[in-house]
Amino acid sequence: MVATSARFDFSPESSNLRKLADTLDRAGIAAGPREIAIGVSIGAIVLWLLGALVMRPAPIIAILLLPFCGAIAAGGFWMYVKMQLRKRLDQFVQQLELALRLISSGVRIGLGLRQALTIVIEEMPDPARHEYMRVVGQTNIGVTVYDALDNLAVRMPSNETLMMARAIRIQSQTGGDLGKILEHLANTIKERRRIQRKIRALTAEGRASAAILSVLPPFLTGFIALTERDMGHALLFTNAGHVSLLIVAVLETLGVLMLMKMLKVDV
């Protein structure tokens, strides 16, 4: 007698690939692992060639420089993904007020919550259209609309999305006028956005200072290399100069990150 069993892949590599695919989908990036690997490899090779041409290091250092360039290319790609994810999330939050008003209008004319969500799909562009289409799609396979909205709050993590999911779930348990609740929530989100715009205006000077601090060291390095040839040669073509540039880059990055962290205000 031969026993048969289903195989399930619980390896860390499979889990990491699923997380990466989910992150790319949330960021709106249509790229597979192969395309990502090829792009990062090309970026690493280009960085290595540029570094080898500019600094002309010793052969051993040049070999050690290749994995360092690979790490920079991978980090740059991950930063790009995070930027796209933040941009898409901001777009979704900006569309949330109108989406709530559309859902509220649909509920008030007698539509169910699921049917009201289809109005958002028909009337609004991406990313709201795509995300609410996922919500409706999950309800088609047996997930309750409340659990689907909770999943939406996980995919698009923001206070506004979480408030929407919780308000709709609580209303389903306690009763009340859902259209009126969503209308009040839309007004609340509108006021939060007004406060956030005011905060951005008040912190504009600090963000400008962070941008200047990040641009100033490369500008000074180029200026020194062009005007002071001996100093520029020592800075770019000696081990001591390379170590100095690395220390400056690390300290500059830490300073900019610290300044941006101080300027971040949660509402």
**What's the rounded overall pLDDT mean?**
84
Can you tell me the residue ranges where pLDDT is under 50 for at least 5 consecutive residues? 1-12
Task: Note the overall shape.
Answer: elongated
- Terminal-residue CA separation: 64 Å
Outline the biggest β-sheet: none
CATH topology title of the domain at 91-187: Receptor-associated Protein
| Count of distinct strands | 0
Computed CA radius of gyration, to the nearest angstrom: 25 Å
- Please give the CATH architecture of the domain at 91-187: Up-down Bundle
Level of helix content?
Answer: over 70%
In terms of structural class, how would the helical and strand content be classed?
mainly alpha
Helix and strand string, N-terminal first? HHHHHHHHHHH
By CATH reckoning, the class of the domain at 91-187 would read Mainly Alpha
**What proportion of the residues form beta strands (DSSP E)?**
under 5%
Continuous helix count: 11
Tell me about this structure.
The structure is a single chain. The chain is mainly alpha-helical and 267 residues long. Among the domains are: 97 residues, Receptor-associated Protein (Up-down Bundle); 65 residues. 84% of the residues lie in helices and 0% in strands. The protein contains 11 helices and no strands. Helix 5 packs antiparallel against helix 6 and helix 7 packs antiparallel against helix 8. The longest helix is centred in the first third of the chain and has 50 residues. The termini are far apart. The N terminus is likely disordered.
